[in-house]
Amino acid sequence: MVSSSHEAMHRIFQHDPGLFSRVSHFLGVDVPTPVKATVLPTDLTDTRPVERRVDTLLRLETAEQGAFLLAVEAQGKKVPNKPADWAYYTAHLWTKYRLPTALLVVCQDHATARWAQQPVCSGPPQLPTLTLTPLVAGPHNMPVITDPEEARADLVLASLAAITHAADTAVNEILKALSTALRGIPEDIADPIVEFTAQGLGNGPAEHLWRNLVAVDLSFYKSSISEEIRDEGRAQGLEQGLEQGHVQRAAEDVLLVLEQRGLEVSDEVRGRITGCGDAELLRAWLVRAVVVSEAEEIFEGE
């Protein structure tokens, strides 16, 4: 079954086809900004009973280089036979559309990125008839955007940065910058960013942090993911007063936010949080945990 993280890694390029030209700078190439972009069918099945589908397929047109195809593949792990599929995709597309064809592979871990960017030849060593050399975007070359102003300048790139760094500790600062940058952004622009980021992060600690940031920083948004997050918050008592049965979970949320932000949590701080039975106080500590520079600062004014 295709995961939401897999979908977000390639569909974000459908949402903003110009993102590829901005990403290419980090990949060591210079692709002009497209003046026109068309999302094409992804089904590459031919007359044989074999079905092959590329994740996202775009037809981009630039003033400098004319039209070309961009196939975007989201790759979550090493799959030995995948390079052969990629070679089929590019050769088939080149033949079908008679247009230059590029392949971009988006990864979320260093090992998969290193594997994906290795050139693969279809022939024996002395006869490299067809050589596949994908462009790879991953944690090794995507920017770490921790400045809210930089994130605000290109929200889609900041979202992709968070997605590709989902397994790195750097993702915490990226997510904080992105949530701050989204404040005051019109909902029709912010909603897709919130959605793509939540889906792309998968089910790890970063996704939980993003949900907390959205619940606290972006409570005014009405997107489906925002509503889902707030529904969860209400169910857990974090939006409109904590019920007694959810106090322990609330304390765990406060600790999780502090730890995922890389802050040192002393035994004294941990004991005070886990020993607290005051619903409203835990709610206040959760809000402060998002922005403080030291864990002890959540208690200021108490």
Automatic annotation (TrEMBL):
PANTHER family: SLL0800 PROTEIN (PTHR34613), SLL6017 PROTEIN (PTHR34613:SF1). This is Transposase (putative) YhgA-like domain-containing protein. The lineage of its organism: Bacteria, Bacillati, Actinomycetota, Actinomycetes, Kitasatosporales.
